[in-house]
Specification:
The radius of gyration is 17 Å and the shape is globular. It is built from 7 helices and 14 strands. It has a single domain, classed as Metallo-beta-lactamase, Chain A (4-Layer Sandwich). The protein is of the alpha/beta class. The strands form 2 sheets. A 7-stranded mixed β-sheet has the order 6-5-4-3-2-1-14. A 7-stranded mixed β-sheet has the order 7-8-9-10-11-12-13.
Length: 246
C-alpha cells in the first residue's frame, strides 16, 4: 500500500487569500497524521478529511504559521464531545524544550501533548519518526517519516546546514522549505532559497523534491527554477490537494 502525502497549505508566514500556511497530511492504511497546523490549515484540511478522523499531529516548532489553528482544532474536538460524538483523544507530538507552548497542547482531555526531542525515535501509528534540529530563530525539528524502506523527509524551517544531508539521504521524497529568493539568501535568517533546497536534494540523493513554505511576494516560479538548476530529479512546487504517493 502507498504512503500518501497531501499538501494542505504551502505558504510561509501567513497564507494568501483562500490558502493556508505550510502543512501536509500523511495517510497510510487509514491512519492520518498532520504535519504542522498553522493559519488556514483547519479550513483547508476539511476538504480532504473530516476533523474527527485525524489520528495525530506532529509540530515542527511553535511559530504561529505552524501552530495558529491548534486552538481551533482543540475546540472542534470539544464540540464533538459535547454533541455526544467524541473522537479519541488526539495526540499532538511537538518539541518539549519550549515548556510554555508545549503545555498548551493538552486541552480538556480532548488533545494531549507528547513531547519529542532531537534524540528521539518515536512510533506514530504506522510511522517511524526521527528528528534533526534545524537552524531557525526558535528550536525547530526536521522530520523523517519511515515505513519499511520508504521514507519522506520534511526540512521544516531552516537555513542551509550540512547535517541535513545524511538525515535526508536516499529519501523517496524530500519536502523542503524554500522561503527565499536568491537575492535574500544569507540576509534573511532561518530559511533557505530554492538553490539550497535543490543542493540538498542533489547531495542527499533523494528521488523527488517538493518545495513549500513559499514567500507571498514575487514570482515563486523563480524559486522553482533555482532549485532545478541544482537538482535534476523530479522537482515541483507542492500543489495543495494533490496526492503524492510513495
Amino acid at each position: 500500500m502507498n504512503l500518501q502525502i497531501i499538501p494542505i497549505g504551502i505558504w510561509g508566514g501567513y497564507p494568501k487569500a483562500g490558502g493556508a500556511t505550510s502543512s501536509f497530511l500523511l495517510e497510510y492504511e487509514g491512519f492520518h497524521c498532520l504535519i504542522d497546523c498553522g493559519s488556514g490549515v483547519l479550513a483547508s484540511l476539511q476538504n480532504y478529511l473530516p476533523l474527527e478522523k485525524l489520528d495525530a499531529i506532529l509540530l515542527t516548532h511553535y511559530h504561529a504559521d505552524h501552530i495558529a489553528d491548534i486552538g481551533s482544532l482543540q475546540y472542534s474536538r470539544l464540540i464533538q464531545y459535547h454533541l455526544g460524538e467524541p473522537a479519541p483523544v488526539l495526540p499532538i507530538y511537538a518539541p518539549i524544550l519550549d515548556t510554555e507552548n508545549f503545555i498548551k497542547l493538552s486541552y480538556k482531555e480532548r488533545t494531549v501533548g507528547v513531547g519529542v526531542s532531537e534524540e528521539d525515535i518515536v512510533q506514530i501509528g504506522p510511522f517511524t519518526v526521527s528528528f534533526c534540529p534545524t537552524i531557525h530563530p526558535v528550536y525547530c525539528l526536521a522530520i523523517k517519516i519511515e515505513i519499511g524502506e520508504r521514507s519522506v523527509v520534511f526540512t521544516a524551517d531552516t537555513e542551509w546546514q550540512p547535517k541535513l544531508i545524511p538525515f535526508a539521504q536516499d529519501a523517496d521524497l524530500l519536502v523542503s522549505e524554500a522561503n527565499l529568493y536568491e537575492k535574500h539568501i544569507g540576509i534573511a535568517p532561518g530559511h533557505m532559497g530554492g538553490s539550497e533546497a535543490g543542493k540538498l536534494a542533489k547531495l542527499a540523493g533523494v528521488k523527488r523534491l517538493l518545495l513549500t513554505h513559499l514567500p507571498l511576494h514575487g514570482e515563486v516560479d523563480e524559486i522553482l527554477q533555482a532549485a532545478v538548476r541544482q537538482y535534476k530529479g523530479a522537482t515541483e512546487i507542492a500543489q495543495v490537494g494533490k496526492v503524492y504517493k510513495i
